[in-house]
Each structure stands twice: as structure tokens, then as C-alpha cells.
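User: I'm preparing a small set of examples for a lab meeting where we compare how different chains pack in three dimensions. I only have the primary sequence for this one, and I'd like the structure in C-alpha cell form so I can line it up with the others. Please keep the answer compact; I'll paste it straight into my notes.
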Amino acid sequence: MRLTIGRKLSIGFTILILFFLISITAIYITLTRVQSVNDRNSEIYVPSMNMLMELKNQIVESEKLIGTWIFIQSIDDNPDKNRLRALINDDYPVLREELLGISQQWNEEQKEELQEVLRQINELFITYGFVMDELSDFMSYDDVMVIFEIRPMMEEGGTIVRNTRELIQSLDDLIEVQRSIVAQGQSDMQITLERFTSLSFLLGIIIVVGGIIIASIFVRMITKPVLYLRRILSEMGEGKLPDHNLKAREDEIGDMSKALNFLIDGLKEKVTFASEIGAGNFEHEFKPLSDEDTLGLSLVEMRSSLRHAKIEEEKRKIEDTKRNWSTQGVAKFAELLRQNNDNLHELSFNIIRNLVSYLEANQGGVFILSEDTEEPTVELFACYAYERRKFLQKSIAKGEGLVGTCLQEGETIYLTDIPDSYINITSGLGDSNPRCILIVPLKLNDEIFGVIEIASFRILEPHQIEFVEKVAESIASTISSVKINIRTTELLHQSQEQSEEMRAQEEEMRQNMEEMHATQEEMERKETESEGFFEAMNHSVPIMELSVDCKVKKINSLLSGLVNYSEHEVDSFSFYKLFDKVFMESQGMLNVIDTLSNGTSLEGDFMLLRRDGTTVPVKGAFKHILNKYGAPIKILFVVQKVKE
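Assistant: Understood. Below is the C-alpha cell output for the 644-residue chain.
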């Protein structure tokens, strides 16, 4: 039979347990009795005694307050009166209910005594109520009959004084009964505790002696190997690992030694694994001791985390490199765009040269939107290829090729994996055959100012494309500003030239005005002379005035005498109504109206037609009267001679 440590300890502890059970039983019985007595004292008799004393205090206080009510004249709303009402209506009922509740644990005699006390209190408070009703206001104290009836109650031998004394005596008797019960319980507890002390001392001696005997037996068998194991564990707690394995015994301590040897071997493997991880060797083979090996599993998880962290660190460095590359590029082109902002060609060349170099591409071009064509068209302003400036002229319409498509759609175009046979990809840069082509619109606020085209033999990465798109927006803003500056300069020059022209025109106009003024004065003079001449003719020769369409407007008095028409009758007469049409046809003047309408003067023999149908042969002439601008305003027919 293998005498294990458990069996050894079981024998010793069985003996101790027997002694312990005997002690516990005796102690339990004693403590239960003490607890019972203490509970009754603390839960019933002591609270009952305190409540009775509080009730006594309320009776004493109420006697003083009712005396004050009777002998001191005061208003109804007085602190003492309010206190007496609160005591009767609030404090006493609460205390009464508590006493009735706790008295259920008393004996019958005590219950009857309590009921008698409560009855006396009710009678006393009824008397108080009578007094309070009679002396309810300030004026009631002046009523002699009331005072004569009430005050004797509070005098020696009076109803209130006598009832209060009897009530206090009854309460004292009840309190004394409760006090004696409490004292008896405390006496019983003292006796029981003295017995408990003696019994505890005896059982303690038995347990101590038995423990010493059992301990002396097991110290040799257990303590020495356990101390050795403790020393080993202490060294391991300091981080030291034993160089040799522990010897195993045929008991639990031997099993502990085997387990400790297994643990030491596992820790040595973990140390080696941790060293390899520290050296950066994440591929070192390691197997946890079990599925519940917390440290081993943590080391494996740590290796995975470090491997993942290393990968993430490499990715982060790459992202940081790309981000720094983009940031530096944006700053570089921001500085570049502040230069040459008055020459689009130089600005375009500097942009494409630096952009191709920064992207490590092969060639590129900048197309600027032309404002001189009806249809949207971009022109090649700058071209850079193989580290040299190219002087090319090219114009691409909207929707034509890739550049035209980019101009039309306003979106970035990126092509890769271009076949070798696809030589000319309508890119605007010629017949090169790169591996990728990037075409980005120069767009600002949805307005396109041009297109940038980049061709490269190496594939552009997404962050490079994003960089070009970001720079393109800045370039578009700069181009917009440059165009505005150039346009402003042109308008300024044009305004200056127009100002010079206007000054010259003003001088010429001033001279023309002076000449016109002189001409007007001369015309006014001539007109005055003409009017005088015409007035003289009007009184000396027959005259007819016609409109430009040969309608008779008026005739003078001399012509009126020839044709027998008054001056007002001929208004708006047709030309042929005052002339013999047959005679005019015979003279070859059939189209005389057309001739006069064309501005041609006419002179010769004419035949006037009178009112009575007879004719008068005359020699006359048709003359046009012109305004100051040389345009005919009327026609005059002047009779030069009347023939017989």
C-alpha cells in the first residue's frame, strides 16, 4: 500500500477533526444559548424599556405643556401649543403602535398592565382636549368661569395632576419589570460565558497537544522535501533555471518534482524561442506545452503580432514615403507656379519638364484651351521628351482622340498594357509606344482650362496619379490667373490705345465742329439770300411748288391767275391735273414724273391746263430744292415766259 501524503495527512487531521467537532459542538450549544438570551434582551426587553421611558417623558412633557396652556395667556399659534398638539396627534400615536407591536412578545400580565396604562393616557388626553377647546383663543383667558373651572385641574390634587401621577407610577412599574427581566438575562449570559471559557480552555489544550504530536510526525516526512522544492521555486521566481532535474519520489512530492522538471524544460524552450524572436527569427519552431499553456500560447501570439507589426511597419514606411513624396511635390510645384505667371508658354514648359522628371516618366505635354476658336480646342503649348524640349504645334478638337475625350468628359484617363502594334494611340505626343499613358484635365470648379498628358515606360502608381490630379488643380488655378493677368494687360494696352484714338478723334471732331459751324453760318447766309431771292421771284414770275413725288403743294398768285385755281384748291393735286398730258407726250416727256423723282432737272416748253379745260403755253423749268445735306426736299416749277 502506497502511503501518500494525502493518506498521512488524513490520519492526523481525522484525529484533529474529531477533537475539533467536539469543541465546535460544545461551543455552538453555548453560543446558541447566549445568543438566544441576548436576542430577547436586545430585540424585546431593552427596546420595550426604552419605549416605556420615552412614553413617560411624553407624559411629563405634556403635563408641562398643558400647564403652560392653562396659566399663560397666549395666541393660538404658539410654539408650546403647537408642540402639545404634535405630541398628542403625531408622536404619541406612533409610539403607541410601536409598543403594541413589541408587547406581543410579553407575557399576559405585562400586556394587561400596558393596556391599563394606554387607557389612562387616553383619559388624560381627553381631559387635555377639553382644556384646549375651552382655552382655544386669546380672549378665552379673560372668561372667569372658564378659568375657575380649568385651573383647579392643574393644582395639587386636581384631576390632571392626580391622573398624571397615577399614570407615571404605572409606567415606572412597567419599566421596573422590563429592567428586572433584562438584568436576569444578563446574569444568565454571564454564567453561560464563564462555563464557555472553561470549556474552551480545556478543548484548546487538547487540540494543541494533539497538533504538536501530529506535527512532529509529519515534519520529517513532508517539510524537508517541500522546503527543497520551495528553494527551487524561489530561484525560479528570481529568473534562475536549475541545471539538473529533480529526483522523484513515490508520493505527491515526487509527482510535484516530475511536474517541476517538465515545467523547467518548457521554460528553457521558451527562453530559446524568445531569444530567436528577439533576434528577428520569426520562423523558429516552437510548440506550447499544452492547449492551456498560457505563456507558450502568448509567445506564439506575440510572434504572430510581431510578424504582423513588422509587415505593417514596412507598409507604413512605404505609405509615409509616398505621402512625403506627394507633399514635397505639391510644395515644389506650388513654388514653381509662382514663377513665369505672365508667360503661358514658359510656364507650361516648366510645369511639364518638372512633372515628367518628378514622375520619372519619359515624355509629356501641356495642352491649353484655345479661346480663339468657335469649337472647344486645345493647343499644345509645351512638350518635353527624353530630357529635351520639343517644339511641336498641334491642335486637338473636343472629343478627338484621348486628349479630346478627356477635354470632353473632364475625367482622368489612364491606360496600361498598350499592345506593341498600337503605335499611334491618338495621344497627341506622336508615335511613341509607352507602357502607360496618363491624361489629366486641368479643371477648377468644373471649368476645364486644358489637359496634361504623361507617357511613361514604367507603370504609374495610384499615389502618383492622385498627385498629378492634385497638381493639375493648382495648375488650372494658375492658368486661370495667368489668363486673367494677360487679358487684363491686353485690355489695359487696348484701353490706352483707345484713349489715344479717342483724344485724336476728339481733336478731329473739334475741328469738324468748327468747320461745320462755319459752314452752317455760310448756309444760313445763303439761305437768307435764297429766301430773299425766292420772295422776289414769287412776286415777279409764276411759281408752282411740288413734293418729291410730284404732288402739287402750292402755287403763287401769279400762277393761280394763269390756271384759274385758287392757291388752296391745288393742294395735293396730281402733277397731270395742271399740265396737258397730250402735249407732254408729244414733246417726249411721258415719264416726266420718273425723271423728276430721280433728281434730274427738266427745262422746256409746257402746256398748263386751266380750270375750264383750256390750255396756256409756257416756257418753264423744274428745279430741285436741296437741304443742307444735299438731299432733295421739294421741286419748283418756274414759268420763265408765257407764250401767245
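A couple of notes for your slides: Residues 422-429 have pLDDT under 50 and may be disordered. The chain has 13 helices and 13 strands.

User: Perfect, thanks.
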